[in-house]
Amino acid sequence: MAEFISLYSGSSGNCSVVRCGQRYLLVDMGKGVRTTSAALKALDLSVSDCDGVLITHEHSDHVKGLTTFLKKYPLPVYGSADTVDMLESNGVVPASCPLYSLGGREEDIGAFGVQAFPTSHDVPCVGYRIHTPDGKTMSIATDLGTLTPAVHEALSGCDLVALESNYDLHMLRTGPYPYYLRARIESVRGHLSNDECSAKLLELIQEGCKRFALCHLSQDNNTPALALQTVFTTLGAADVVPDKDCIVQAQRRNEISPPLEF
């Protein structure tokens, strides 16, 4: 049995677990070592069973807790060539930790097969398609302003997809953010809206995927209820019934979300 578990997800910090049996991978680490360690302990996950940490990109809400955590637990770290260069040159990853760059082909990381794929953001950024030891496949894609063909290819054929549903367009445009920040978020190098996420989920459901995690919800421009409502409205118009035809779960900002089996 494989599981996707978000330890925390949002603009204030992101970290998730992809688990199969005793072995697991961490994806990003955007909060302090105490928060991440407490979450792992609550899930009865030993750091010694972690095969590595996958980093999507260099923004602080994805790497803030990495340095301190790795000083205590020197795990191998993986990312795109650009992200690895940044982590190394800025001393984010201690010298005691192995640091590896991932390209476009699948690589073995412990018991898992991992393939990085590019996402459209304002710094070099990737998502990950992960094959588990029991033959299941999931993909995670956050921090992307548009759904490129490369992203669609990486999400297709998965048993579970964790996809960004960052903002509600009306909340963003009528909220307190200055114009330049709103423009950045809406751009093809920004973030994915609830509407864009919902349309992609429907497409993936029609291709056979049944389990979804909505990730990286904005604290100021979204709510879990609104993100889910947008998805359910889109699915309902296509006669897709949530909880019957698929499972869609909005991930929690500051606490562990319920595990999603796939």
UniProtKB/TrEMBL annotation:
SMART domains: Lactamase_B. Gene3D superfamilies: Ribonuclease Z/Hydroxyacylglutathione hydrolase-like. InterPro entries: Metallo-B-lactamas (IPR001279), RibonucZ/Hydroxyglut_hydro (IPR036866), WalJ/YycJ-like (IPR052533). SUPFAM superfamilies: Metallo-hydrolase/oxidoreductase. It holds the Pfam family Lactamase_B_2. The keyword Hydrolase applies. GO terms for molecular function: hydrolase activity. Keywords: Hydrolase. Residues 12-191 form the Metallo-beta-lactamase domain. PANTHER family: EXODEOXYRIBONUCLEASE WALJ, METALLO-HYDROLASE YYCJ-RELATED. This is MBL fold hydrolase. It comes from Faecalibacterium gallinarum.
